[in-house]
Amino acid sequence: MNMYRIKLCIEALSEQKSGIGLEMQTVRKIKQMLAAFLTVFCTVGNYANAQKLAVSAGGDLVSSYIWRGQYAGGVSIQPSASISLSGFSLTAWGSTGFSSNDVREYDFTLAFDKAGFRLAVTDYWFDTSDNYFDYDVQTTAHIFEATAGYDFGVAAISCNIFFAGNDFHAADGKRAWSAYIEASVPFKLGGLDWKAEAALTPARGFYANCFNAVNAGIAVKKEISVTDSFSVPVFTKISFNPYQGKCFFTFGLTL
Asked: What is the tens place of the pLDDT at every residue in 13-66?
């Protein structure tokens, strides 16, 4: 009987040691996982710091929202936020008008800029639909655009094409592949920064029903000093849409 009790005690001790061993292995694995996580986190953080991670936020207040030669809303607030690293950037931009008739817009742009070249994909969304997450090709309010451009310094050119989402010909329901090609020239005059731009669409689509000039304009920026250490950038722009026979004159300030 005594030998049997001793055997039971030995087995109990063995099981206890086995349990302790399993617990120690679990704790060891958790420590290894935490160490690996901290190593990756620190590595990414150090890389981001070394590559100068940039984060920015701001917004514009405009007298009217004019986009690519088209009226898109009245007085509007247009917030933006972006994060960039090693030439890549992700930007969120929106526009909300003061009038209940104005369409709200939320956009996300993923871009890569290098030595003057720019490649980007933008997701435009308008609140003509109540469901932001509706990506059905027949009912979505999203429009996806691909952009390719180059900045020569003295001038810049970009080509923008809707490639997915709500961009169809009303007559036959076929995809329109609406394209907008723009050239711009920055210059200085009177100590201020100016930019002239002109754009066309090569075929029937969102901007016109055929090849046409759809936007031409000139903008000027100026810093208005509020205090010795604080100033507010303001801008004015006059633009024309030859296809629509429209003229727009807008004012805005950047916060």
From this structure: 455 555 545 455 655 656 565 566 556 545 555 655 557 899 999 999 999 999
Q: Are strands 231-241 and 54-62 parallel, antiparallel or unpaired?
A: unpaired
- At residue 210, φ and ψ (nearest 5 deg) are -165, 180
Residue 197 forms beta bridges with which residues? 184, 217
Q: Which residues sit opposite 234 in a β-bridge? A: 222, 253
pTM: 0.79
pLDDT digits (tens, 9 = 90+) for 156-195: 999 999 999 999 987 788 999 999 999 999 999 999 999 9
Burial, 209: exposed, middle or buried (Cβ in 10 Å; 0-12, 13-18, 19+)? exposed
CA-to-CA distance for 148 and 152, rounded, in angstroms?
13
Nearest to 250 by CA among 8, 88, 66, 124: 66
E strand map for 39-155: 54-62, 65-67, 70-73, 76-85, 88-97, 105-114, 117-126, 142-151
| Residues 113 and 87: beta-carbon distance below 8 Å | yes
Extents of the domains making up the chain:
1-50, 56-254
- Please tell me whether residue 211 adopts helix, strand or coil conformation: coil
Second CATH level (architecture) for the domain 56-254: Beta Barrel (2.40)
Long-range (24+ apart) CB contacts under 8 A made by 21-30 are none
- Using the predicted structure, report yes or no on whether residue 9 has a pLDDT greater than 80: no
Amino acid identity for residue 126 in this structure: F
